[in-house]
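Protocol step 4 of 6: structure prediction from sequence.
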Amino acid sequence: MSSSSVRWEGRSAFKHAMIIAFCIALIYPVLWLFGSSFKEPEFIFSEISIIPNPVTIQNYVDGWAGAGTPFGVAFVNSTVVAVAAVIGNLISCSLAAYAFARMSFPFRGVLFAVMLGMIMLPHHVVIVPQYVLFSSLGWSNSFLPLVVPKFLAVDSFFIFLMVQFIRSLPIELDQAARIDGCGPWQTYRRVILPLTVPALVTTAIFTFIWTWNDFFTPMIYLQSPDLFTVPLALNSFLDATGNSSWGPMFAMAVLSLGPLFGFFLAGQKYLTQGIATTGLKG
């Protein structure tokens, strides 16, 4: 074996070792969380090993019972909010994107620039006027502030993503549809929408993940424990006096990861295709 082959194999082995070490470092917190969910509470922070000894499922029993309200209620609440947010974004953002990408109307360029500017605007800047508005409508302590804005195309990122995707489609498809007698709505529904499945799936996945993990917005609007979403229910296991239920919280955190992994794996193929074809690749 030549010296150049030895050096190449050595560099390859080193790169693979670094990648493996990096992957282990990334997944270690998840492994620690999973192992700690099966540990006795007194051993969670006293042991370095991630392997529980002895193994107990009491954390899952106590966690599912919840801190005052059954944790299953939070699962249902998060599912309702996340699914409604996904439906709202798919409908409103795809319609707005189609209008920006294919239709001509006054001030389209200005409105598109304003929409792009909203991407750079921190969410916390508008939280106070939004809270005042929703409180005046009597929507406080309900799911309406979390769901209704999604049907009004407020997520500029997903509009931009779909605009990029629709612009990559041949304009001849729209022209052929018009020759066949299709109006803008029929063109959107019969031509554009079926071809934007990768972008729609990408929007659905990110919307579900971000909504499911959102802690700040539900904390602002939801006061009743019966309306708590998963992040708020997990936070209810923490006690400022130091009597936090770490074991049940870790157990429920493991369960809360299930829908995220499932939703992501179900649409992984379309997610990769959607990102690669919407101008978001590096």
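Step 5 (inspection) to follow. The two ends are 38 Å apart (CA to CA).
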